[in-house]
Fold this protein.
Amino acid sequence: MHIEKRVLVTGGAGFLGSHLCERLLKDGAQVLCVDNFYTGAHRNVDHLRDNPRFELMRHDICFPLYVEVDEIYNLACPASPIHYQRDPVQTTKTSVVGAINMLGLAKRVKAKILQASTSEVYGDPEVHPQTESYWGNVNPIGVRSCYDEGKRCAETLFFDYRRQHNLRIKVARIFNTFGPRMHPNDGRVVSNFIMQALRRQPITIYGDGSQTRSFCYVDDLIEGLVTLMASDDSVSGPVNLGNPAEFSMNDLAKEVLALTGSSAGTRKLPLPSDDPRQRQPDLAKARGLGWEPKTSLHDGLKRTIDYFQGLDIPEDVMPPKA
Ligand SMILES: NC(=O)c1ccc[n+]([C@@H]2O[C@H](COP(=O)([O-])OP(=O)(O)OC[C@H]3O[C@@H](n4cnc5c(N)ncnc54)[C@H](O)[C@@H]3O)[C@@H](O)[C@H]2O)c1
């Protein structure tokens, strides 16, 4: 008899989590999506609710969870600065207490567990691009520390559970990812540019626009998470997942203006003094697992713009769908 794999996705109603749930269902797994809806949304998973292999549970991972599963993807945590800084104590709790609870569960039921860590563990990096062996340059007391240090501590816990309890762990360090279901108002550059262009407002560029960023399309990232989870038990990571291709803010704005048909142009403002230096993943380890990002920025932006156009945003500020 074929027994379906039971997979728990924490933060499953969020941007990445909802795509992961969808992918796991497609692969034939039973999926338990756990979320407290802090930044997640029902609309992200509504289309999955008719699937008999999908189950949605409202739960905060800061509290223990008793379920029977074979694999755990721990994605629960607000991810953009405006979200994780809104309640910084809760952000640290979700990262640290949440990790302890999910690791405890994995230990009890002997599940394999993957942690969604972040490139933020590298802080303001002094090496470029970042390899996983770089220890990072993080301020422990700044306004971003609740997230950066929370995620660093979660990594520590994962590796201590492996050393102390022989748990099968996987740690993915995720770099900037974009795509449908990202938050339209999360203050990040891709969503800002798209929303401004769709509202026919000039796109705001800070500085001269020559500074670069790299962006990974969500489908590629999800493929990376699934690949890492399926890797040999000897592979714990951390493994960088992202797209190393760099684009200047001017190029990104040009592409978004062309794809949205906006003629509102751009508006330059002075560069804030704390504008983070670029982070770019070294992907040697991920490539060693046979993974590689494939989606071009152009294709990814097109799909993301389609999604934003379909969102329920007042008519007067949204142009008709092309
Ligand atoms: N999107 C990116 O570019 C990116 C980059 C690096 C790391 N990550 C990591 O990937 C994960 C998912 O990020 P995302 O972009 O999908 O963010 P998101 O905010 O869309 O998703 C996070 C989800 O976790 C839920 N959540 C938050 N606290 C919770 C708690 N205590 N208990 C249960 N659920 C809780 C939220 O409601 C939300 O649905 C996060 O752990 C984030 O740190 C994302």
User: Anything to note?
Assistant: Residues 314-322 have pLDDT under 50 and may be disordered. The longest strand covers residues 112-118.
